[in-house]
Each structure stands twice: as C-alpha cells, then as structure tokens.
C-alpha cells in the first residue's frame, strides 16, 4: 500500500481522527491504482480562516506515481469532507485517463 501524508494549515486541526478517516477513504477510493502509486499527499486549508464563506475549504491531492509525473488536483467546498471527496473524484478520473479503465473497477 502507498504512503499517505497529511498537511494542514493553521486553521484545520490535523489530528489522528482526521488522518485516520482520510487514510481510510483514500485507500478505499484509490485501491485499484495502489500498485501504481507510491505516495498521496493531502493539503487541506481553510482559506477564510474563522470567517464563514462559500467554498472556503480547499483540498489539494497530489499522487506520486511510479515511473510517471505526479498528478495534482484541487477542489473547494463548504466542508473538508466534501472538498476531499470532490478532489478524490478528480484524481480517480485523471488516473483512469492515464491507466485506462479496468474491467473490475466497480464504477465502469
């Protein structure tokens, strides 16, 4: 399995619960590509700090791939979870474009 590294800004607490949750979600969602990925970096930020705002949570995912250039995607949403899920969808789409869709992939 690939390594997952969580990076947060000062406005988002990168505690063990969040890290465990994100690791589980990312491992599940990218399991089809686990042989091709060496590391996934998660960068979370609250761009409006403690003020309320639309789509102020940012998630940037960077997948480090074996023998290929890294892929980076970014998503903005009202919550960290939504931003992560949207970024994961973008990352999976990019990975499917690079490696092709697999017959045993559940969403094809």
From TrEMBL:
Keywords of this entry: Ribonucleoprotein, Ribosomal protein
Gene3D superfamilies: Ribosome hibernation promotion factor-like (3.30.160.100)
InterPro entries, alphabetized: RHF-like, RHF/RaiA
GO cellular component: ribosome
Protein name: Sigma 54 modulation/S30EA-like ribosomal protein
């Amino acid at each position: 399995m690939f390594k997952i590294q969580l990076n947060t800004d000062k406005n988002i607490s990168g505690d063990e619960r969040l890290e465990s949750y994100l690791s589980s979600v990312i491992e599940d969602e990218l399991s089809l590509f686990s042989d091709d990925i060496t590391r996934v970096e998660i960068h979370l930020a609250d761009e409006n700090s403690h003020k309320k705002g639309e789509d102020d949570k940012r998630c940037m995912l960077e997948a480090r791939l074996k023998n290929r250039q890294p892929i980076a995607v970014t998503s903005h949403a009202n919550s960290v979870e939504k931003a992560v899920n949207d970024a994961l969808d973008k990352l999976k789409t990019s990975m499917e474009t690079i490696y092709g869709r697999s017959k045993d992939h559940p969403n094809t």
